[in-house]
Design goal:
The structure is a single chain. This protein has a single domain (3-271), classed as Metallo-beta-lactamase, Chain A (4-Layer Sandwich). The chain is built from six helices and 18 strands. The protein has helices spanning 83-86, 89-96, 104-113, 192-199, 216-227, 247-254; strands at residues 3-4, 11-13, 29-32, 38-41, 47-50, 75-77, 100-103, 123-124, 129-133, 136-142, 148-152, 159-163, 168-173, 179-182, 203-207, 231-235, 260-262, 269-271. The strands form three sheets. Strands 1-17-16-15-14-13-10-9 form an eight-stranded mixed β-sheet, covered by helices on one side. An eight-stranded mixed β-sheet has the order 2-18-3-4-5-6-7-8. It is globular, with a radius of gyration of 17 Å.
């Protein structure tokens, strides 16, 4: 197993060597902000924020507790309706006057509830491909999870649970062809092999916490035997006491593989 030990520094750069069929220019930066929250900056400077739970996330660094700290944002993606994925997305969308891209059923509920205007809640679903920013392509994939949205009625002060549509993962393709698979929350499922064959992600962002998602052993099986990416970043652990899986357990379970494990701490970034 080729494991890269990570110094606890703000920025970490890696050289990504592309295959002959996929010429690369520029770099993609991936910044982890705890749980499933990432800020991805494309080689062309487009900023994609995925699953922003920042202000109340115990693992988000203090420097990013304010949404303004993200800087400019060009696209917002949400994988499903659970609070630890959608919490700050509507406010971030309003701040930048952007649409919030999410599964069709979730955005339909948000439209009905008046969380945001309908024209800021575009709908798409598994297999659908969008271009949320110039040069960026995003395709929704299956995720083996659930999705509910809890909405607080400002008039009554009461909260109610609403349909959150189907959870998804995302294949995010940069202008230069570099592909990131943000898995959202999911267990292992057989069609991960199909996703690997069809989209060939270079980097996978994989949940390892257990209880709500794959545990480290399940995640290792998915990476080693099904997805086989060049790089993997473990995520979705430690922010909830039930998410007990650790990167060390994941690395141990992964065993011998050509996939490079990038064991980031929240607030660290890596470049490809």
């Amino acid at each position: 197993m080729r494991f890269i030990s990570m110094m606890k520094v703000w920025m970490i750069s890696l050289l990504f060597v592309a295959g002959a069929a996929q010429a690369q220019s520029g770099q993609t930066e991936v910044l982890w902000l705890g749980q499933a929250a990432f800020r991805i900056t494309s080689p062309g400077g487009k900023v994609i924020v995925v699953d922003p739970w920042l202000r109340t996330n115990p693992k988000t660094p203090a420097a990013f507790k304010e949404l303004t700290a993200l800087g400019k944002v060009d696209a917002i993606l949400v994988t499903h309706g659970h609070f630890d994925h959608i919490a700050d997305a509507p406010d971030l969308a309003r701040m930048h006057n952007l649409p919030m891209w999410a599964p069709g059923g979730l955005n339909q509920s948000l439209t009905t509830l008046g969380v945001m205007p309908g024209d800021k809640l575009p709908r798409f679903n598994k297999g659908g491909t969008i271009q949320p920013a110039a040069g960026i392509k995003v395709t929704a994939t299956h995720a083996e999870h659930s999705s509910e949205y809890v909405h607080r009625d400002e008039a009554t002060g009461k909260s109610a649970t609403h349909v959150g549509g189907e959870p998804v993962g995302y294949i995010i393709e940069m202008e230069n062809g570099f592909r990131i698979y943000h898995m959202g929350d999911t267990d292992v499922f057989g069609d991960m092999k199909l996703i690997a064959e069809r989209y060939r992600p270079d980097l996978v962002l994989i949940p390892i916490g257990g209880n709500f998602t794959m545990d480290p052993q399940g995640a290792a099986f998915a990476i080693r035997d099904m997805l086989k990416p060049k790089f993997v970043i473990p995520m979705h652990y430690g922010a909830n006491p039930l998410g007990k899986g650790t990167p060390e357990e994941f690395i141990g379970a992964l065993g011998t593989t050509s996939t490079r494990v990038l064991n980031l701490s929240p607030g660290e970034a890596v470049k490809f």
